[in-house]
Amino acid sequence: MQSESTHTDTSDRGFDLGRVPARLVAGDRLSEQESQAVFEALLGGGLDEAQIGAIIALIQSRGVTVDELVGAARAMREHVTPVPYTPKPGEVVIDTCGTGGAAKTFNVSTAAAIVAASATPESGSGIERVVVAKHGNRSRTGRGSAEVLAGLGVNIEASPEAQARCLKEVGVCFSFAMRHHPAMRHAAGPRRSLGFPTIFNLLGPLTNPAGAKHQLLGVYGARFVGLIAEALARLGSERAVVVHGAGGLDEVSTLGPSDAAWVADGGVTTQPIDPAGLVPIGSIEALQARDLADGVRILTDVLDGASGPPRDIVVLNAAVALRVAGASADLGAGVAAAADAIDSGRASNTLQGLARLSGGTV
C-alpha cells in the first residue's frame, strides 16, 4: 500500500507529490526545490514503482532541466554513503566518472584516473598531489569501470574506509556506485524495466562519494554538455569540465574536437578541446574492446607503456584531468606529465598498489 505522504501536500515544500506525474504529463517543469522533494521521497521509499517509472520516463521524454537535475542531485547527496577522506593542504580530489551510454571503447576514464593519480604536478602550480576518487558502476555491456577494475585485481567492494586508505597511500580509489547509493534500490526495478537512459545516468557523476570538487565528466550526448556544467556550477564545483567527444564518445576524443564546457568560479565557459598538436588523431576501431578480457588487456598494455591510439586517448584525458585539478598550466604540460607517469612505471605501480590496498589481488 502506498504511503499517505505520496498523496498529500507536503507543507514544507508546498506541493502535492502525488500530482507530480500528472503535472509532468501536462508539460510542467519542476523547480529545484520541488525536484529535491520528489527525489527525497523516491529515495526514501515514499513513491511506488509505477510513480517512479512515470516520473523518470516523463522527465526523459521532454528533457531534464537544470533545476530538476540540481534538485535531484541535492537529494542524492543527502543519501550517499561517504568516503571518509579529507584532503591535505596542496591536495586536490578529482573524479573522472562519466555518464556511460556512448560509443563503446575500452574503459578510458578508468585508465586516465590511474595515470592522473600517478602524475607529478607542474612545479609552481601550487598543487602538491592530485588524488582521484573514481566513481563508477557496472555497465550494460559488461565492460564498465567496475568489471574492468575487478579484472585488474582491484577489490571493487572495498569499504569506504579502505577507499580512504587507497586515496591516502596510492592516490586513487574506486567508489562502487551501487555500494554508496543504497537508496537507489527503490528505482532499480523501474530503471531496469524502462531499458533506456534516464535522469539517474546524469545524476551518478554529480554525487561523488568523496565529495570531489574537481571533475572531468564525459556525457553521452552533446545536448548534455552545457546542462551538466551549469548543474556542477550550482552544486559548488570548484573546477570541472564536461565533454562530449568526436565519434560520439563520452571522453575527450582523439578522433577530432570535443565539445567542452568549463566550470570555474561559479561560471561556465565553452571552449572545445582539439587533440591536434597534442596527440595523434586516431580511429574508433583502434579504441574498441571486443569483450571484457580485451578491455582489461588494452588497459594493462597502456599502463605498461605500449604505444598507440589507446595510450594517446588515455594521455589526453589524464592531461585534461590534470588541467582541471590545476596541476598543469596547459594541456601540453598535462600531456607530458601523463606520458611521464606511464613511462616511469608509476602508473603501473599505482594500479598494483590499488589492488593490494583495496584487498584485491596483485
Order of helices and strands: EEHHHHEHEHHEHHHEHEEEHHHH
* Helical fraction: 40-55%
CATH architecture level-2 label of the largest domain: 3-Layer(aba) Sandwich
CATH class of the largest domain: Alpha Beta
Major sheet: arrangement of strands: 5-4-3-6-7-8-9
Q: What amount of the residues lies in strands?
A: 5-15%
Distance between the termini: 49 Å
CATH homologous group name of the largest domain: Nucleoside phosphorylase/phosphoribosyltransferase catalytic domain
Structural class: alpha/beta
Major sheet description? 7 strands, mixed
Give average pLDDT, whole number.
Answer: 92
Quick recap of the structure?
With 362 residues, the chain is α/β, with parallel strands linked by helices. The chain has helices at residues 20-25, 32-43, 49-62, 66-79, 108-118, 145-151, 160-170, 177-180, 185-194, 199-203, 225-234, 292-303, 309-325, 331-343, 346-358; strands at residues 9-10, 15-16, 91-95, 129-136, 172-176, 214-218, 239-244, 259-264, 267-270. The protein contains 15 helices and 9 strands.
Give the secondary structure arrangement, pairings included.
Blueprint (H helix, E strand, L loop, with lengths): L8 E2 L4 E2 L3 H6 L6 H12 L5 H14 L3 H14 L11 E5 L12 H11 L10 E8 L8 H7 L8 H11 L1 E5 H4 L4 H10 L4 H5 L10 E5 L6 H10 L4 E6 L14 E6 L2 E4 L21 H12 L5 H17 L5 H13 L2 H13 L4
Parallel strand pairs: 3-4, 3-6, 4-5, 6-7
Antiparallel strand pairs: 1-2, 7-8, 8-9
